[in-house]
Specification:
- By secondary structure, this protein is α+β, with helices and mostly antiparallel strands.
- It is 64% helix and 8% strand.
- About 3% of the residues have low confidence.
Length: 1024
């Protein structure tokens, strides 16, 4: 056995063939010895306390080589120099003159690891893989010492990835307390169940010796993961929430916390195989696990096929490259075996009987050095009497020329020849199994093979014993409590060759039979997790409508888990399948899935949404679907308005004009209400548009259905939000979101992403505008936390910007800068493969409120720079809601000009601010505009004009709930009346301002992070 040997001051690393000297820092110093010198040290350390004679050392280390005993002195001297071990007073190596040497240093052996030769004996032949196995062993030792490890093992199919990993697993039992969890990806048509291999690994832990502790940890640390596991949902029904609720936003965060918890005390070896078939959500989790820097006894091993990633555009390739560059993981890329390794395989091991050079060369040429191909070829040769295996070594039974002639040209031919030799029932078993997938079970597959489960299982067991085609897998528990045996093809090449040789009609029949059987086994409400599998089977059976229905179900599951990239893969597959439908059905389905794609892209601020909605509008127009065309044009206008306000007007106007052609008055009102709301958001307040929008909603409330009302409420609620109707905005948005989120998802899938966003922004915004800082903080904080858990960094930054506006009114200027910095600076996420998308409007909000906060902290030059940056962007690239956010920008500029003392410019800009506010129905900003104008007049000693402006500000506040403005208006009114000598009025306004200030402060609980700063700074405001 090899071990990591530790002395008091050194570690003798028998895996990396070096010595580590402890120097008191976090990183030990590596000391390299010449290979032969290290061999001497190793041999002595392995025989510590025992006298090793010169002859024994020479025999052990210089086998078949004649050297003089004096050579040992040179190596011992080199060891003493490295260890600082004088011969006169040795601490490690004692010399017995004329006899030999004894290692006397104190040694503590870490968990031992098997030598490669010992692994061969336990796990099968691993010729040519000593170095990668040694790397895995070393990493496992480091992980056991609380230094987390991640290894990605790549290579072509059959190259030996699984064999290498399983060799490590076989010897992992020698690590004290080690727990092994293994999961495998299943081949799919373009995406599988999110987190499938991870859930499989956890399922293994939950059924193994560590079941109790694993279940406790799952329930405590990762309830969302626990809810995905059928066995726990059955056993813990009362304590687990429904999976569709809990899985929405916390899978990645809980996943990383879960594995850290599982590997906190005991080493955990997590093996995830065939990740080239993984869903994208699993890739996101891998990224988070590898980038985690906390100490942990976790070792992660991932295997995948390199060429599969390149052809499919899978993000795992980019992830691995980034992780390797950043030194978050190590990569082992397995290549073809060289000829000497193939010779060792044929010999049965390093010391076996050598095969002829011609035989070695033949196998090398035919296999290309692929271990799996070698195994198949040798098996084929053995079956045909061309070669035989005696003990462990191989030899030819015929002349080499005949062997070369008899070798099939392809593996497909080999497998087909084997299939032809099989009994009819055996072929039926493998045919049905290949259609079921890489992994199959008797309950699902036996009916497709037209066999009972017992007969099917008996034939599978013959294959397990006598061929390399399949192997046993973990039994599958059924809903009725029974357990059936599962099997898995040893390599996908087997399954693919078998699958390809089945005729098209026969293949479709088998797929339909398996799909029907799965539907029979699982009731409709239990099929969500099988949706992709069922969709694959019915698509292959050319039952397009059923396949698309299951893709819709799979889409709902992926959306509920925020697996956005998996959503796109499913949408791609749906678009592909829809082309097979009859004309009428195809048109409607293509429009449906295109609209769903646009909704997801728009909700995630993906610029591709523009092309998607343009295509949707064009397709709907060509097919005469006016309702769909109107929706597409409205969403197209919105997406364009992110960066090109003028360009958004034509599709907006076109949608309004097209609404005249909508035959359904309900849909017509929905279109018009949204169009008027969009026009206000984009091009400024318009009383007529607001009235028409409200009238459309009123008609819908009278005659429309609930969903149409909810859709209209969402948009009118946002109109109310920018026109002082804050309470109404909150009620409308909340009501609409509750109705939409409680509706079956297939009816509102395209609405939910936008509704979720509007609700989360609108709720917090309306609450702080009403003066309820505490409730608004909870809304924004909860939104940010949920998006952080789901790994959506773009949404996190967006909501941080909106939370910053609350922080400003609560006078937490430092917090404003903290929340605004990422969006204002346009920072990229270091852990992301692509830049986080921040909309221009959100960057402008960040610049404006960051400037206001800097002014509040008296950094006026920096504030001016922020304001000018926002102003330049608005002029260069107008976007939606610029008209609204220009109000706080102009207010901030007026405040800076007051300090600069330029009377003419200050008063001109203050008047301009009042004119802009007067064009809106936003009384908060009307009052603040006149309040700023009043302060400008006071700054230039015109108290009478200040009083006039104050009265207008107070009039704007009258009859409206605008506490954010009224607090400042009352403070400025007090100063203005004091300047006029009217101390009674000044005192009254101070008192009224104090009442408002106290109400705002009381909306924050005692100890809230905002309360202390607000009370301090708002008190100073009223004291001026």
């Amino acid at each position: 056995m090899a071990a990591m040997v530790e002395t008091s001051a050194f570690r003798i690393d028998l895996a990396n063939l070096c010595v580590w000297r402890r120097n008191g820092s976090a990183v030990d110093e590596r000391l390299d010895l010449p290979p032969r010198t290290f061999d001497v040290l190793r041999y002595l350390a392995e025989n510590t306390g025992r006298l090793v004679s010169h002859d024994e050392l020479l025999t052990a280390l210089w086998r078949d080589v004649h050297v003089q005993p004096e050579v040992l002195k040179r190596h011992i001297l080199a060891i003493r120099n490295v260890l600082g071990d004088p011969s006169s007073n040795p601490r490690f190596i004692e010399t017995q003159r004329g006899r030999g040497y004894r290692f006397i240093g104190p040694i503590n052996s870490f968990a031992p690891m098997l030598e490669a030769s010992e692994v061969v004996a336990e796990s099968g032949l691993l010729a040519g893989r000593d170095e990668p196995l040694l790397m895995l062993q070393t990493s496992l030792q480091l992980a056991a010492a609380r230094e987390r490890q991640a290894i990605f093992v790549s290579g072509e199919p059959g190259i030996g990835k699984t064999a290498l990993v399983q060799a490590l697993v076989a010897q992992a039992r020698h690590i004290a307390g080690l727990v092994v969890a293994q999961g495998h990806c299943i081949e799919g048509f373009g995406g599988i169940e999110p987190y499938y291999p991870v859930l499989e690994a956890l399922g293994g832990l939950c059924s193994g010796p560590s079941r109790a502790s694993t279940v406790r940890t799952l329930m405590k640390v990762a309830p969302a993961w626990a809810a995905q596991m059928a066995e726990l949902r059955t056993e813990q029904r009362e304590s687990l929430p429904l999976p569709i609720d809990v899985a929405r936003s916390c899978m990645v965060r809980e996943g990383t916390n879960l594995f850290d918890a599982l590997a906190a005390e005991r080493p955990l070896l997590l093996v995830l195989e065939d990740l080239h078939w993984s869903d994208y959500a699993t890739v996101d989790l891998l990224s988070a696990l590898c980038r985690r820097r906390s100490a942990s006894k976790l070792m992660l091993i991932v295997t995948y096929r390199t060429e599969e990633l390149g052809s499919a555009g899978h993000p795992l390739q980019q992830l691995v490259h980034d992780l390797v560059v950043r030194k978050y993981c190590h990569e082992i890329e397995l290549g073809p075996l060289p000829e000497p390794a193939i010779a060792e395989i044929l010999a049965g091991g390093p010391s076996g009987v050598l095969a002829s050079d011609e035989f070695v060369q033949l196998i090398t040429e035919r296999s290309g050095g692929n271990p799996l191909f070698i195994e198949l070829i040798l098996e084929f040769l053995q079956q045909h009497g061309i070669a035989e295996r005696i003990d462990r070594h191989w030899r030819l039974l015929v002349p080499i020329s005949r062997a070369a002639f008899a070798t099939p040209p392809t593996l497909g031919r080999i497998l087909e020849a084997k299939m032809d030799e099989m009994p009819h029932e055996a072929r039926r078993v493998l045919e049905a199994a290949s259609v079921a997938g890489l992994r199959f079970d008797t309950a699902t597959t036996a009916p497709a093979a037209e066999m009972d489960e017992q007969s099917f299982e008996a034939i599978c067991e013959v294959f397990v014993r006598n061929t390399c085609t399949i192997r046993r897998d973990e039994p599958v528990p059924l809903r009725d409590g029974n357990v059936v045996q599962a099997y898995v093809f040893k390599h996908a090449v087997f399954r693919q060759v078998l699958y390809d040789r089945i005729g098209r009609s026969r293949r479709a029949h088998l797929h339909r039979a398996i799909g029907d059987r799965l539907e029979e086994m699982y009731p409709p409400d239990k099929r969500a997790e099988l949706a992709l599998q069922l969709a694959q089977h019915f698509a292959a059976a050319r039952d397009w409508m059923r396949a698309l229905d299951y893709l819709r179900s799979a889409l709902r599951v992926a959306n509920s888990r925020f697996a956005r990239r998996d959503v796109m893969v499913i949408l791609d597959r749906a678009a592909e399948l829809a082309t097979n439908l009859p004309d009428d059905a195809r048109t409607a389905t293509e429009l449906e899935f295109l609209e769903r794609r646009g909704a997801i892209q728009a909700a995630t601020h993906d610029p591709k949404a523009r092309d998607t909605y343009a295509q949707l509008a064009e397709n709907a127009s060509r097919q005469g679907h006016v309702d769909v065309q109107c929706r597409a044009l409205l969403e197209l206008a919105y997406v364009i308005s992110w960066t090109d306000l003028a360009g958004s007007r034509p599709p907006l106007d076109q949608a309004l004009a097209l609404s005249e052609n909508q035959s359904d008055p309900i849909q017509r009102d929905v279109t018009r209400g949204r169009a008027y709301a969009r026009r206000i958001w984009g091009f400024g307040w318009n009383m007529d548009d607001a009235r028409r929008c409200e009238e459309a909603l009123a008609r819908l409330l009278t005659s429309g259905d609930g969903l149409s009302v909810a859709r209209a409420q969402l948009y009118f609620g946002m109109v109310c939000l920018v026109s002082t109707r804050y309470r109404e905005a909150y009620d409308l948005v909340e009501s609409a979101y509750r109705l939409l989120s409680g509706t079956p998802r297939n009816e509102v899938e395209a609405d939910l992403a936008r509704a979720f966003w509007i609700r989360h922004v609108g709720a917090g915004w309306s609450q702080y505008a009403l003066g309820d800082f505490g409730a608004a903080w909870k809304e924004f904080d909860a939104s940010i936390a949920s998006f952080e858990k789901s790994g959506d960094a773009g949404a996190v930054r967006s909501f941080q910007v909106y939370r910053a506006t609350l922080r400003f009114y609560a006078m937490d200027f430092e917090g404003v800068l903290q929340d605004c910095a990422p969006a204002a600076l346009g920072l990229l996420d270091d852990d992301s493969a692509s830049p986080i998308r921040v909309l221009p409007v959100e960057r402008r909000i960040a610049l404006i409120f960051g400037g206001l906060a800097k002014a509040g902290l008296e950094d006026k030059r920096a504030a001016l720079d922020s304001f000018r940056a926002a102003e330049m962007e608005m002029e260069r690239q107008p976007a939606h809601l610029d008209w609204y956010w220009r109000l706080p920008l102009e207010w901030g500029m007026v405040n800076l000009l007051i300090f600069n003392g330029d009377r003419s410019t200050t008063l001109t800009r203050a008047k301009h601010l009042c004119d802009l506010a007067a064009q809106t129905s936003e009384r908060t900003w009307q009052a603040l505009a006149w309040e700023a104008h009043a302060r400008a007049a006071l700054a230039f000693d015109d108290a009478a004009e200040a009083i006039d402006h104050v009265e207008k500000a107070l009039a704007a506040c009258a009859g409206a709930q605008v506490p954010l403005a009224e607090l400042r208006v009352q403070a400025t009114a007090a100063v203005a009346y004091e300047a006029m000598g009217d101390t009674v009025s000044a005192t009254r306004h101070t008192r009224e301002g104090e009442t408002i200030r106290r109400q705002l402060a009381d909306s924050l609980s005692e100890g809230h992070p905002l309360r202390q700063r607000f009370e301090q700074r708002s008190g100073l405001l009223l004291a001026v």
